Amino acid sequence: MFNAKNNSITIFVITIIMFSLSTHQLQALDNGLALTPPMGWNSWNKFGCDVNEDMIREMADAMVGSGMKDAGYRFIVIDDCWQVSRDEQGNIIPDPERFPSGMKALADYVHSRGLKFGLYSDAGRMTCQKRPGSRGYEFQDARQYAAWGVDYLKYDWCHHGKQNAEASYALMRDALKASGRPIVFSICEWGSNKPWLWAQDIGNLWRTTGDIRDCWDCGRGKHSGGWTKILDFQNGLESYAGPGYWNDPDMLEVGNGHMSTTEYRAHFSFWCLLAAPLMAGNDLRSMSADVVGILTNNEVIAVDQDSLGEQGRKIRDDGDYEVWAKDLKDGSCAVILFNRSKKEKKISVSWEDIGFSIKSAQVRDLWLHKDLGSYKGLFSTRVPSHGVVMIKVM
Ligand code: GAL
User: Fold this and answer.
1) Domain range holding 339?
2) 106 in the Ramachandran plot: left (φ > 0), alpha (ψ -120 to 50) or beta?
3) Each residue of 235-279: pLDDT tens digit?
4) Residues with CB under 6 A from ligand 1
């Protein structure tokens, strides 16, 4: 029998579980960094191992010249392949042919442009491209990064053998802290060990999936490949993210050439609704006006950078037609109407769907930069194939 006593015990146990879950989420890493999702550029998606100091300098120049810096982008991060070996004292050695001036000079240059500088390493013996990893050298590497002026570390998970993920990432967190320099810590273990359950006080962001690719839904993996597959995996992770600790659905593919402007706009809109880190992954030196327009849309970026730090979630799923929403600090709500189908489709969102109890609400289109007026009960509009309409409801 389910009597009153059982009932109150059940309620007590549920309260305790919910309390411990919520306190766990609130325990952010105490480095005070990334209180909004980090924004920057990373070399991997476009260039892979083909990195060198001239190109990194040009990328910093382009981040400033294109208006991306003004839009909020800060970090210039060199991914895998900058490192070649260790010296007799165990110090990590940058590739002398590709980085002849050394990392300190490069970091100084990036800083001189008002930007921040990031590097990549790996918790295992080797990086994914078989360069030296940080296993056994965590504190020495962190001291070296600090001496060079590194502001951001992406830390990968290849060649980890039997290492425990949580302990390995906590070790590098401690090493970065001991270095005395504030360094954003980006965990990249592809979601293998569900970092959203344990990484809030270890890293500022953690990858949730395998690698993104520049396509709509290509790739064989369930949690890697085209951005729509990665998007699907983010839904349900929203309660684990907040100011200082973000789910990372991987770097942007906007501008890498294999998707349409409509598809890139949708990809960018979703990353902003998810409060995802915005790390551009294209060649900033040769962007079309459309690509610059996407990457610097300040109204959409404001949704990403909203100080409430909510990750948006799916609130309606009608097969190919979806509605996603994100509450914002000022009490308004950002909404994406998403059409996955091959044909244009009319999609609507009701005020009830987004938890608004008012009759009429103001709607602003964040891509048209236009107030659309006041709407009673719901908003309905045509959404292009593979595209979004992104609005703010107030
Ligand atoms: C992968 C990682 C990529 C990139 C690559 C470099 O593990 O997910 O984003 O960093 O390694 O080798």
Assistant:
1) 313-393
2) alpha
3) 999 999 999 999 999 999 999 999 999 999 999 999 999 999 999
4) 44, 79-80, 127-129, 156, 158, 188, 190, 211
